[in-house]
Structures are given as C-alpha cells and as structure tokens.
Amino acid sequence: MPNHDLAVVILAAGKGTRLKSSLAKVLHRAGGRTLIEHVVRACAPLGAKQTIVVVGHQAEQVTPAVEPLGAETVLQQPQHGTGHALQITRRALGRAKLAIVLPGDAPLVRTETLKALIAAHRAGDAAATILTAVLADPSGYGRILRKSETAVAAIVEESQLTPDQRELNEINSAIYCFTLDKLWPALAHLKPNNKHRELYLTDTIAVMTAKNETVLAELAPDAREVLGCNTRADLAEVDRVFRERKRAALMDAGVTIQLPETVLIDPEVMVGEDTVIEAGVQLLGKTKIGARCTIRSGSVLTDALLGDAVTVEPHCVVARSRLDDHVIIGPFARLRPDNHLKAGARIGNFVELKNSTIGEGTKAMHLTYLGDTRIGAKSNVGAGTITCNYDGFHKFPTSIGNKVFIGSDSTLVAPLRIGDGAYIGAGSTITDNVPADALAIARGRQANKPGWASKKRRELAAAENPKKAKRSRKKSKARQPSKKRK
Ligand code: UD1
Ligand code: MG
Questions:
Q1: Tens digit of pLDDT for each residue in 82-97?
Q2: Separation of CA 103 and ligand 1 centre (Å)
C-alpha cells in the first residue's frame, strides 16, 4: 500500500536519566547500532513522505546520526514531555494525514509490525491506534485501559496507576498511528498534571475517547518487539534479542554456529553456506565471510573480507583485511588494518601484520612483524623476522620477491628490496637491497675457542674457594701417574 499521506515522527529529545550516562539515550548501542538508527531503519521501508526526528538533549550529536539516514530534525528545547514533542512538529509535518509516532528508545520494532499497525488504523478509520503488548512484568510502562474488546479508553502512566490498575499487563509501546487532524486538537487539551510537570502524549487518548473518537489497540505479534531501553539492564536485554535474530537468520541461511549464545555478530555481517563459527567469536562491522570457512573460538573479526575455505584458528584479531581462498591464520595472529593475504597464504602464531600483502602460498608461521611490506608468492619468512618500517619519523616500505627465504631472526631495515629467489642468512640485519638469487648474510662471524668453557669454570671455582681448589688440584696431580716414577 502506498503511504504518500504518511509521516514518521521519532521522539529522541529526552535525556535518559535512568541510564546514568553522559551520552544521550538514543545514541547508546544495542545489536551493533545506535538505538535511533535501528528505529529510523525499521521505518524506512514504509515509504513515508517524511521522517522527522525530534531532537533536544545532545541535539548536536543526535542530528548527524540521523540525517545521513534521510531523516530531518525538529529541535525541542526545553523538553516538556512526549506530548510537547509532538506539538512542536506541527509546522514541519505540512500536509501529512497520518503519522506513525515512535520513541527513539524502542529499537526492536519490525517494519512488518508497523505495516500491520497502519493497516489496522486505516481499516478501523481510527483517530489513534496504539501498538500494545502483554508483558509478564509490565512495570515501568504505561498501561492500556480498555473499554471494550477492541476499543481503548485511556493510557495510564505507571506513576498514576490505582492499586487495581496495577494488575493490568497490557502495556503501551509508545508506538502509535495517529490521524493528524484528530491529534492536533487533542494535544491542545494536554495539561502537565503529573509529578514531572510534563505534557504526556499518552493523555491524548483519554481526550480523544471523551470526544467519542475511535481509539484502537493492535497487539504486537512478539511482545519483545516493544521493549524500551530505559536502563542498562534494558539495553543488555535488547542487545541480546538483536544478536539472537542475526544468528537465527544466518543459521537459516546455512551457517553452523556453535554455542550460539556466546557468538556476537553485527547486523551487516554476511556469511556463506557451510561456514562454521565456533564459540566466543565476534564478527563485527562490515565483515563478509565466504563459504566453507572455519572461524575458531575467541577470534574477533572487524570489517574483514574472507574468501572461501579460509581458516581462522583460535584467538585471532583481524581488522579491515582481505583473506583470499584457502588462507590459514593463527592461532594468535594479529592482523591490523589494510592487509591482503593471497590464496593459500599462511600466517602463524604471534605474527602481526600491518598494511602488508602476502603472496600466494607464502608463509610467516612464527613470532614475526611485517609492516608496510609486499611479499611475492611461495616465499618463507622465518621465525622472529621483523621489518623495521619506522625510523621514529617516517614509515618505509619493504618489498620481498617470489620464492625468497628469510632466515629466522632477521631484521629487515626499510626501505628495502629483496629480489626473487634471494636467501637471507638467519640472524642477519639487512640494511641494503638484496639482488635476485643472492645470499645475504649480515652478522658477526662465529669463532670457536676449544676448552674455553671448562677453563673458565675452574677459574671461577678457584676464586670462590681457594683452599678447596688447592686440594683438588693436589688430588688430581696425585692421581696422575708421574713421568718420573715411570
Ligand atoms: C513512554 C510512555 C509509556 C510507554 C513507554 C514505552 C509517555 C508519557 N509514556 O514512557 O506509556 O509505556 O514510553 O517505552 O509517553 N522524549 C522527547 N521529548 C520529551 C520527552 C521524551 O523527545 O520531552 C522522547 C525520549 O527521548 C524517548 C521517548 O520520547 O525516546 C519516550 O520517552 P521516555 O522518557 O523514555 O518515556 P517512558 O518513560 O519510557
Ligand atoms: Mg522509554
């Protein structure tokens, strides 16, 4: 159904006192996004003429978070309650006939549910339709007072409940569809008759029903969709639901996830079929993983791009890097941003990479740092190799060709070029370019001194205990057959 007559209004001006935070409530994150971003995204497919976000507290931070998503903002300063927030949108709303109104702190609502709310509102020709839910523990929410099976009499805020009304467990989600020419007069009737001295949007319902307008309630299909985030505990619960939804979608798409409740996956992450994700993994940002990969326990991947059949062994950290098909990394590998590991490359334990390209089939298996380095195919980087890419002032590149052998514990001082097929002797400090197929050794020559160690030990013993040393010298002389006695 086209919604040319529809506007979306999201209320996001409040402070969120109960979170005890210096950050505005709607900018807190759950399920990998800010609360407000979830709400704007859920509304986008409704095809509304305009989306207005009411901003106030920390407007300068909230505005840049929503404008790139296509929303416009209206400033509510000071904030006199949810009813006041709606009042000040009147001019901006122009000629819209219907408005979907949502709080910026209830991010789990799904587009399908909003569509059903609009459809029920249109079908019932109502002045207002409220999305409601039945909760086992309704505390903290406004309650729905019904006057019949289908019609609503009023919403009563928690602080104003009579003892009898406390039993009511149908709650106000604060998501509504309003017919605007019925809403504006009702808003004009609001009085700040509550302990916060605010104008409550919820009070418009009683005003409407007193004028015999139709107010309907539409029950949310899943009560968890309306959870609001007023406290840190609410935030944790909402995050848990988002993570669960994402994992369920991936499992439906053919991904195996072990101990799913321990795995954290951001909303934009993509994973191919038959990939196995082990316990305690985090896949963050825009990470994209191919088919038949294995991401083992404790690994954290942010904005990583993995081909097919890639193995990430336990406890790897990968940031903004590309791993082509059949690459194996870890355990305990750290890939800082901007690496490209070509097909079949292997990066082992305690290896750190930064801004480096590792050629096809090339290996760096142990205790190595490669920064600003390009390595060709089928090369081998020995244990403990370090590229010295920084002189304290500038960064310099290292270029290593194909089929190069870098001996263990080599220090490669950049800028440096090592040609194809070259061989670096272990323990070298290489400061000059190495031509193709050459052997470079840059270390002190070895000298063996026979008997030096045993002589040293005797001298030390003598210095510590001269008498004992004299006796043992005599004894050993006595044992030796003298040439004279012969
Ligand atoms: C509100 C509803 C309550 C409902 C609950 C559902 C009212 C009076 N109560 O209570 O019936 O059960 O949501 O989550 O509406 N805001 C503004 N300007 C203001 C005040 C608030 O923009 O002056 C915004 C807040 O930023 C927030 C939203 O409105 O995003 C709701 O405000 P909040 O204080 O969270 O209301 P609740 O106490 O949760
Ligand atoms: Mg709230």
A1: 999 999 999 999 889 9
A2: 6
pLDDT at 360: 98
Residue 51 Cβ inside 6 Å of ligand 1? The answer reads no
User: Per-residue pLDDT tens for 114-132?
Assistant: 999 999 999 999 999 999 9
Cβ(323) – ligand 1 distance below 6 Å:
no
pLDDT for 472 equals: 73
Quick one: which ligand is closest to 82's CA?
1
* Matching fold, domains 3-226 and 249-440: no
pLDDT at 478 over 60: yes
Query: So what's the pLDDT on residue 483?
Result: 52
- CATH fold of 249-440 reads UDP N-Acetylglucosamine Acyltransferase; domain 1 (2.160.10)
Dihedral-angle region of residue 327 (phi above 0 means left; psi in -120 to 50 means alpha; beta otherwise)? beta
Mutate to test the pocket of ligand 1, among 89, 105, 201 (most ligand atoms within 8 A of CB): 105
Query: Domain residue spans in the chain?
Result: 3-226, 249-440
Q: How confident is the model at residue 482 (pLDDT cuts 50, 70, 90)?
A: low
State whether the beta carbon of 109 lies less than 6 angstroms from ligand 1: no
CB of 76 shorter than 6 A to ligand 1: yes
Whole-number average pLDDT of the chain = 96
For domain 3-226, the CATH architecture is Alpha-Beta Complex (3.90)
Residue 476 has pLDDT above 90, yes or no: no
